[in-house]
Amino acid sequence: MKQIKLNARAKINITLDVLRKREDGYHDLSMIMQTINLCDNITINTTENNNIEMTANYSWLPCDERNLVYKAAALMKEKYNIKEGLKIHLTKNIPVAAGMAGGSSDCAATLIGIRNLFKIKADDNELMALGKTLGADVPYCILRGTALAEGIGEKLTQLPPFPNSIVLIAKPPINVSTAAVFGNFDLNNVKKHPDNKKIIELIKNKDLKGICDNMCNVLETVTVKNYPIIADIKKAMLEYDAIGSLMSGSGPTVFGFYENYDKALVALKNIRSKFRIKEIYITTIFNTSK
Q1: Which one is catalytic: 11, 71, 87, 171?
Q2: For the whole prediction, is pTM greater than 0.90?
Q3: How far apart, in whole angstroms, are the C-alpha atoms of residue 190 and residue 156?
Q4: Do 202 and 257 contact (CB within 8 A), yes or no?
Q5: Pairing between strand 3-21 and 216-217?
Q6: Which of 19, 73, 104, 161 makes the best surface tag, with the fewest CB within 10 Å?
């Protein structure tokens, strides 16, 4: 029996812009994404049968064809003619339905893990092409680090490493449907769009304050309107010394950047108490060596 253990890291959106609605119903996007060190954990073991067995740390998580981890394993077995079985355990730490690409990151880690476990000669670009068939965020979750994502999120440009910082993550006790957010999005309601070229220059210059002053997510026009608690948490983070704060993805997770751990801890304690939030974490920026 062979085994591999993997970390599937969450992402946050430094910017998110919607450019237009496409004929296929999706939207063209332009966004800067960043990996953080909040992780799900995946363990993959080989078995002697030809089956895929999946378990998870929460009983309510589907562990069959409805789960992207299972789909990724099935795709790899078919694509690379893997005859051995797979036993996969997923430990979820990243909040679910939170705008942090947790499911996509689990999927990406599974693709990478099976490739490495069986020493399959497939580079990241090949895996990213496979991942795109499972979800628009999966290619980015294979690339990781700091990246400009365009198209529906699958056209990626690696950017210089993001400035190191402490990140506070807070997900209020609500779930947001990405499809519903995009379905209710109206480009005419957007008063401010992110300046991605400017942000990229600020990233190159390691100017965290400048980045924070220019962060922007146009989907806040939908999600914050429906869930005012998101704006309240952003305001609270800034009141408790965040350099900047923003909603990630389609929400409802809010993140803030902090100069040091102590300031983030004070914010965590106060926000957790004030908003009765259970899913609140202090983490850090993850930069790849690529």
Answers
A1: 11
A2: yes
A3: 24
A4: no
A5: parallel
A6: 19
